[in-house]
Design a protein that fits this description.
A: 450 residues; 13 helices; B: 483 residues; 4-stranded antiparallel sheet; 16 helices; 13 strands
């Protein structure tokens, strides 16, 4: 029991002071038939050494994106995480603190969140950001709830080139409130503008667009935003924060709410979580924003300090009238993102974006002309694109996995009727050899290589 | 007086960089990059070198209280020690470097982690099936309510209308109820701090979808008549949910499944020691009885002949509540914790947590009013009424504790106790720490008579002193803009 300091003697002395003769006397409120009158059916506790061996042997059963080459994306990306981000984020002061309910002794957490909010506003070109949501999908669900409350309308237009799992999350979380998600037809992987415009009417609360979209295409989102707002609907943009060094931010096009997945801002891929839901909006929506917000104030001596603010929106004050049920969010992931953005600065972020653009363009070029490989869509891509293969996609993934390469995400998993396609992502971590290796691998596979 | 902390933005100088991106080979640079809506004005992120970033955030970190530094008796939050090995394991490439969409034959170790953790949590809760997907306790509550809704629709054709909660419930309960499309019916607690059975009976009808209740409840007491309460709700066709916030008192002692609950969530960031991170990430798995298993979020893990895979083909599933499978990094930590503690160790956690709380209760009861003065579980609620009558509010006591280096208890919650101070010492604290804390609490009480101003103007030694919270809301400044 290396995490429990009290010895049997301590316990005996404490029970004496409490005035009972045995621990069980403290359980008198629990009826006998509701007590577990047997030991838990779990193995005995193990030494740290043994725990580490067991866990490491489980870890060795996995291919991973650090020791092996990965082209997997679809919402989780292996952007490089500078060592200092890891080192700083392991500090107990950040890791083992609770939610900052006593601001006098939580200035580190509060100031980091304030810096985080400021940086997210800068990335997205928005006026306000909160202290984080669980992930991209739940952030989208919250944005939809906000839009419905703000417009008092219940229909949401969601094209299928928004991340399909985000849409599933949103549907699960908003449908019980009578909000419905309505699809929009696509053309060449992008939103069919005429179709979108014809679907807009007085019942539409919001239009959701993803930028770059699920297939990696950078669409011109400006007309969608304009059309939505002309119909009294809000424009919600799901945007990749890592693209904001090179792409015009959604705020410049007038987006009302921008959400996104902050994993790629210095967080581990970690099999899908913990990730970091980003949420930013225009100033007029702040009082409907979900989650925590930190603001600047002064202490009694006039020093600058930071506190949680606008808490009257939140569940611990407003209960059933709260804007959201969120309490615990993703504080440490937001902290890591803050460290990451501080290290990169505007130049670093632009350089990462440029590196992605070049590698993406290079790989697309290398794949063009290989018989049996087809680029699924035209249009500008940022760091990810879909390809169609003339042979089994899963066969290709197994072929590459044998060569310790994680080659892509099969689109057949997402119900998009693209069963012969896969999504390939390239970040700044891919070398010339990695990219050439991918092209050579797909060529050999299609030629029937073993 | 300590100096004012600078913002990272205030360290920025044009041209400083903290990170060099991998160089791009000539061949790649030659590729034709497409035309894009290029950003015209760069984001105003700070421009700072790596070493200055490290110094800034290292210095800033000292302005936090944290559990590695000292006692953190924050009731209902279970601020216990977070073993270091767990953080290390979650970061190794074989766990931290996994992609959610890699084929399951390349992620068998990850699925085994999830399977083993699931099995352990089912044994602890006495339930039949589980999802690890919810990212926090509040999301766990919501997930369970959505499953209840789906269950009622499947079995009665209608979701029903109301969900009952006690007036001592956490704020997340009513907020989750509304998001799940239900109305809140609040139940007044009895004078003994427990559910009032008569009040419950009169609130029940066939439009009640569920009762949500915390056990041990939010005043730190075990609901002795829980079996009867559950039967009453079942008798009108309702389901019963246990908020697992207080599971730290129940490990190997008593199980929600055996009490008759239909579903419960587990806060891995409380009971299973995954760190709080200044406000997350958490993890809120939901365990259910087999009647609710078909409605679990998809996917669920399936195993045959030692091979694991994700089963997405779940026609009655409520859908998906997280972008991927939940907070896997927390699942790794929680499994390592379960392996370290073992079955006997988990029981020892609850025994020590309960003894520590009762020790505080008895030692403080002469000076402070104990809200419900009888054996408590893992937390005890004091009322600051006596002290308030002598001129010091609970808030003043809390702020004065900061001067002694302690984090205060949870204050003004639950709402049903006047001037509440809710103390949860956890099993992590030693008898000496508790004795020192008790002495400080007694000393603060003496200070009220001796020097009331000392309390009203506390804290005095913290990095900043009392902050103008109303001013922050009035003059809203929630992002930095360069002067």
């Amino acid at each position: 029991m290396r995490y429990i300091p009290n010895t049997p003697d301590d316990r005996a002395a404490m029970l004496r002071d409490i005035g009972v003769s045995a621990f069980e006397d403290l359980l008198s409120a629990i009826p006998g038939n509701l007590r577990l009158n047997r030991p838990l059916n779990l193995p005995d506790g193990k030494s740290e050494f043994d725990v580490k061996s067991i866990m490491r042997s489980l870890a060795r059963k996995n291919l991973n994106t650090v020791d092996h080459t990965s082209f997997l994306g679809a919402g989780s990306y292996d952007h490089y995480v500078p060592t200092a981000v890891n080192t700083l984020s392991l500090r107990s002061e950040y890791v083992t603190a609770y939610t900052p309910y006593q601001p006098e002794v939580a200035q580190a957490t509060l100031q980091v969140i304030y810096e985080f909010q400021s940086m997210i506003c800068e990335l997205y070109g928005m006026e306000a950001a909160n202290a984080s949501m669980y992930d991209g999908g739940t952030a989208l669900a919250e944005a939809i709830m906000l839009a419905a409350a703000q417009t008092r309308r219940t229909n949401i237009l969601c094209p299928p080139n928004v991340h399909p799992l985000y849409l599933r999350v949103a549907r699960t979380l908003v449908e019980p409130q009578g909000i419905t998600l309505q699809p929009v037809p696509l053309r060449d992987g992008g939103i069919d503008r005429a179709a979108l415009e014809s679907l807009l009417n007085g019942g539409i609360a919001a239009v959701v667009v993803q930028y770059p979209n699920f297939f990696g295409i950078v669409e011109d989102i400006s007309p969608f935003i304009t059309a939505a707002q002309a119909n009294g609907a809000l424009a919600i943009v799901v945007a990749d924060p890592l693209a904001m060094g090179v792409l015009e931010p959604p705020g410049s096009f007038g987006a009302d709410i921008v959400v996104g997945e902050g994993q790629s801002l210095g967080n581990l891929q970690s099999y899908g979580g913990p990730y970091l839901g980003l949420f930013a909006c225009k100033a007029n929506l702040i009082r409907r924003m979900p989650g925590r917000i930190v603001g600047v104030t002064r202490d009694v001596d006039g020093r600058r300090g930071f506190v949680l603010t606008l808490q009257t929106r939140e569940q611990h004050i407003r209960r059933d009238k709260a804007t959201s049920n969120i309490c615990t969010n993703e504080g440490l992931c937001a902290t890591r993102a803050t460290f990451y953005m501080s290290m990169l600065g505007p130049r670093g972020l632009a350089s990462v974006g440029e590196a992605c653009l070049h590698r993406c363009a290079y790989l697309r070029q290398q794949l063009t002309g290989i018989p049996g490989v087809h680029l699924a869509f035209g249009g500008p891509h940022f760091k990810e694109f879909a390809i169609r293969l003339d042979k089994s996609v899963e066969g290709f993934l197994h072929y590459m996995a044998e060569r310790k390469v994680l080659a892509g995400v099969p689109l057949k998993w997402f119900g998009l009727r693209m069963d012969d396609s896969l999504l390939v992502a390239v970040t700044e971590t891919k070398s010339l050899e990695d990219l050439d290796g991918f092209a050579a691998g797909v060529k050999q596979y299609l030629e029937g290589g073993k | 007086m300590q100096s004012e902390s600078q913002l990272i933005f205030e360290l920025s100088r044009p041209g400083r960089v903290g990170y060099d991106v991998p160089s791009t080979p000539r061949e790649i640079l030659a590729a034709q990059v497409p035309d894009l809506p290029r950003r015209k004005v760069p984001p105003k992120l700070p421009e700072v070198s790596e070493n200055l970033v490290v110094r800034h955030y290292t210095n800033l970190s000292t302005r936090n209280h944290h559990i590695d530094k000292d006692f953190y008796p924050l009731g209902s939050c279970t601020m216990k020690y977070n073993p270091k090995i767990n953080d290390e394991l979650a970061g190794i490439p074989g766990f931290g470097g996994l992609h959610p969409f890699q084929m399951t034959n390349t992620a068998q170790g990850a699925l085994e982690v999830l399977q083993r953790l699931s099995d352990a949590l089912l044994e602890v809760t006495g339930m039949d099936a589980i999802t690890l997907q919810p990212a926090a306790g509040a999301q766990g509550e919501l997930t369970a309510l959505l499953m209840f809704r789906a269950y009622h629709q499947k079995h009665g054709g209608r979701p029903r209308r109301r969900v009952i909660i006690p007036d001592s419930a956490h704020g997340t309960n009513p907020a989750s109820i509304v998001i799940a499309g239900y109305e809140v019916t609040e139940l007044k607690s009895g004078a003994d701090g427990l559910t009032d059975i008569q009040a419950l009976k009169s609130a029940l009808s066939d439009d009640v979808a569920a009762l949500m209740i915390t056990n041990p409840n939010t005043v730190g007491l075990f609901e002795s008549r829980i079996a009867e309460i559950i039967e009453l709700v079942h008798s009108v066709g309702g389901l019963v949910y246990m908020d697992g916030a207080n599971l730290n008192a129940m490990l190997g002692v008593s199980r929600p499944g055996d009490m008759g609950f239909d579903a419960c969530h587990i806060n891995l960031h409380k009971t299973f020691s995954t760190p709080h991170g200044g406000g997350g990430p958490g993890s809120g798995p939901v365990a259910v009885k087999s009647s609710l298993a078909p409605f679990l979020p998809s996917p669920v893990i399936n195993t045959r002949d030692g091979v694991h895979w994700w089963d997405w083909n779940r026609p009655d599933s409520i859908g998906h509540v997280h972008s991927f499978y939940g907070n896997f990094g927390m699942h790794v930590r929680a499994l390592a914790y379960v392996l370290s503690m073992g079955g006997d160790g988990l029981r020892a956690i609850s025994e020590n947590a309960i003894i520590n709380a009762n020790y505080l209760r008895v030692k403080l009861s002469g000076t402070y009013e104990v809200a419900y003065d009888r054996p408590c579980t893992h937390e005890v609620i004091l009322s600051g009424d006596r002290q308030k009558a002598r001129g010091a509010k609970t808030l003043d006591i809390a702020k004065r504790l900061l001067d002694y280096g302690y984090h205060p208890p949870t204050v003004y919650f639950p709402l049903i106790v006047h001037e509440a101070l809710m103390l949860e010492p956890t099993e992590s604290e030693s008898r000496e720490t508790l004795d020192e804390f008790i002495q400080v609490m007694l000393e603060i009480d003496r200070e009220i008579t001796r020097d009331p101003e000392l309390l009203k103007s506390a804290p005095h030694t913290t990095p900043v002193r009392r902050l103008d919270e109303a001013g922050a809301a009035r003059n809203l400044d929630i992002r930095y803009t360069a002067k």
